[in-house]
Amino acid sequence: MTDKLRVGDYMTGKVITVSPDDTVMDVIKLTRETGHDGFPVTKEKKVEGYISSLDMLLCESDELVKNVMSKNLIVAHPNMEINEVARVIFRLGVSKLPVVDDKGNLVGIITNSDVIRSQIERADPQKVWKLKKTLETLHNVSITVARGEVDIDDLVPTQGKVFADELEGRIYELKKGLAEPLIVIHKPGRWLLADGHHRVVAAKRLGMQKVDAYILEIPKDIPLGMEKSSRDAGLKTLDDIQVLDYAKHPLIEITERLLMKDRKGTSPEELERRGMESD
């Protein structure tokens, strides 16, 4: 769990490429079909360049890709740390980097969205270790942590409500491949969902049967506080979770509150403060 995150874990393996002998019009058509704003240029799996929408500006439509593509490329390696590639992307001001293996063959592409996804998913281990330590201290028990898939239908929720707007966001994330793990407590005969209720309800709505999770293994059937709260609230399966479609998730409320504040204009005091900061 403490291993460093690598490019190979988050890159997209199936990459759409173009040939040096394609024309600008070929790439424009591909851009319309895929929505991508740039493509690695390859010949026999070797990366020879990269062509973006900017490279094609003011070019004739029958111009060959090899004449307008960028040849001075920075590429990543699958074993490169995510933090390192994040620095490279930030410094170069680009949105993606081709990923090549030791032989120089294209094996994937890593984007700024992949980097963001990796940072969201890595936030969970901190929660895991904090919960592990808390449970061990409270119940004087040794807990092991494993990573694996859990069956959604086996999970007993410990939270009775989720927000509809946040649920829509989680469905979108899952469709885009954001596999933020759940945190599950496994004790004899029971699987308690400790964290990730929006995620798992979203997964269920998408028809998924199993979800990636950090699993805290408790060897004894000790009574847990969250288990009692769940039982008192009548929570037995995920179907018992209520979806609140009339209330907004706190994160959405904060966002809208900030936007409304911005719409009302900025006070003279705030402008002065910003001015001093800019100095």
Largest sheet: 5 strands, mixed
SSE topology string? HHEEHHEEHHEEEHEEHEHEHH
Helix content: 25-40%
Low-pLDDT stretches: 271-279
In the CATH hierarchy, the architecture of the largest domain is Alpha-Beta Complex
Give keywords:
Conserved hypothetical protein from pyrococcus furiosus pfu- 392566-001, ParB domain; ParB/Sulfiredoxin_sf; disordered C terminus; two-stranded antiparallel sheet; alpha/beta; 2 domains; 11 strands; CBS-domain; about 280 residues; 5-stranded mixed beta sheet
Explain how this protein is built:
- This protein is an alpha/beta fold and 279 residues long.
- It folds into 2 domains: 7-120, CBS-domain (Roll); 123-244, Conserved hypothetical protein from pyrococcus furiosus pfu- 392566-001, ParB domain, CATH 3.90.1530.10.
- It has 11 helices and 11 strands.
- The chain has a 5-stranded mixed beta sheet with strand order 5-10-8-9-6, sandwiched between helices. Strands 1-2 form a two-stranded antiparallel sheet.
- Strand 3 and strand 4 form a beta hairpin.
- Helix 7 crosses helix 8.
- The radius of gyration is 24 Å and the shape is elongated.
- The chain starts with 6 loop residues before the first helix and ends with a helix.
- Mean pLDDT is 85; it is low at 271-279.
Give the SSE map.
Blueprint: H1 7-10, H2 24-34, E1 38-43, E2 46-52, H3 65-68, H4 82-92, E3 96-100, E4 106-111, H5 112-122, H6 124-139, E5 144-151, E6 155-157, E7 161-163, H7 164-175, E8 182-187, E9 190-195, H8 197-205, E10 210-217, H9 225-232, E11 242-244, H10 250-263, H11 268-278
Parallel strand pairs: 6-9, 7-11, 8-10
Antiparallel strand pairs: 1-2, 3-4, 5-10, 8-9
Helix pairs in contact: 7-8
Keywords: Amino-acid biosynthesis, CBS domain, Methionine biosynthesis
Domain CBS: 11-67, 69-125
Pfam family, one: CBS
